Amino acid sequence: MIICGAKNFGFVHVPKCAGSSIRWPLKDQDDMGGRFFGSARIDGLGRVNMNHLPMIWLRDHFPDAWAALGQVESYALVRDPMDRFVSAMAQRARGLNKDPGAMRPREVRELAETVVTYIEGLSDYPEAKQIVFAPQRDFVFAGPQQAVTHIWPVEAMPALRRRLQDHHGLILDRDQIWNPTVTYRRAWMAKPLKQLKETSKRVLPMAQYAALRDMAVKAFTTHGAPVLEETLRGEARFQRFVADFYAADHELHHEALAAHASRSTAAG
C-alpha cells in the first residue's frame, strides 16, 4: 500500500493482481515511507507480509494508516479468481524451490491439494508466505465496509495508468508486466536470476530495471507453466475450490469489469 496525500492518491496492492507495476514506480511518493513494503512482526499478528494486508488488519492494527487511506481517493486491481489461483500456485512452487514450469501433473496435484487443504482448514488468514491465497475482497473491504474508492480489473491496466496521470498527475515509468509465470530454460538459472532481479529492482531507476528484466525474461525463460496451468484448470477438485472459496471474488471481478465497460462507453 502507498498513500500520497499531495496527489490525493492511495493504492492498495491485492496480491497476484499486477499491483507491483503501480506500487513500485510510485514508492518514492509514499507518505508512509515504505512502511507497507516487505515483512514485519506485529503484536497480535506475528510476522506478516506488509505488502498485502487485509483491510481488517489495517483498520485494527494501523489506525493512522487506515485514517490516511480514508482521506484520499484510492485504487486497487482485481483479477479473475482462477487466473489468480494459478499464479499464486506458481509462486508457492517457487517458494518451495520448485520450478513451476518443470512440475509433472502428479506434483502439481499434490502441491495444490496441500495448499487447498491448508486454506480450507483456516479460521483466520494464511501465514505470511501464503497470504497470496487470501480472498481478494478482504484486501479492499473491512467487513461490510469498502475501504478502497475505486476497484479496477487488471484487464483495464492501460486505462488505469491514464487515469492516474490525468486525474492525479502521477507519471508512471512504463512497466506493465504482471509478474507472469515463466519457465527457466535451464533450472540452474532460477536462483541467480531471481537474485539479480531483486537487486536491480532496489538499485536501478524503474525504466532501467524494467528494460533489464524484460531482456532477461526473453533470453532466459519461456512464458507460462502449461502443465501446472492445465492441471489446475482441468481438475474438478480445484475448479470447485476456486468457485466456492472465491465466490465473492468472482462477483468483485465481474463488477469491476462492468464498471470499466461503463466508463469506456461514457468516455466514447
Throw out a few tags for this protein.
single chain; 268 residues; alpha/beta; 4-stranded mixed β-sheet; two-stranded antiparallel ribbon; 11 helices; 10 strands; 13% strand
In short:
By secondary structure, the chain is α/β, with parallel strands linked by helices.
What does the secondary structure layout of this molecule look like, with pairings?
Layout: E1 2-4, E2 9-11, H1 20-23, E3 39-42, E4 46-49, H2 55-61, H3 63-70, E5 73-78, H4 81-95, H5 105-120, E6 141-142, E7 145-146, E8 150-153, H6 157-168, E9 182-184, H7 190-203, H8 206-220, E10 221-223, H9 226-234, H10 236-245, H11 247-267
Parallel strand pairs: 2-5, 5-8
Antiparallel strand pairs: 1-2, 3-4, 6-7, 9-10
What would you say this structure looks like, in words?
A hairpin with a 4-residue loop joins strand 1 (2-4) and strand 2 (9-11). The chain has a four-stranded mixed beta sheet, sandwiched between helices. It folds into two domains: 2-181 and 224-267; 182-223, no CATH class. The protein has 268 residues and is an alpha/beta fold. The protein is 49% helix and 13% strand. Helix 2 (55-61) packs across helix 3 (63-70), helix 4 crosses helix 9 and helix 7 (190-203) packs antiparallel against helix 8. It is built from eleven helices and ten strands.
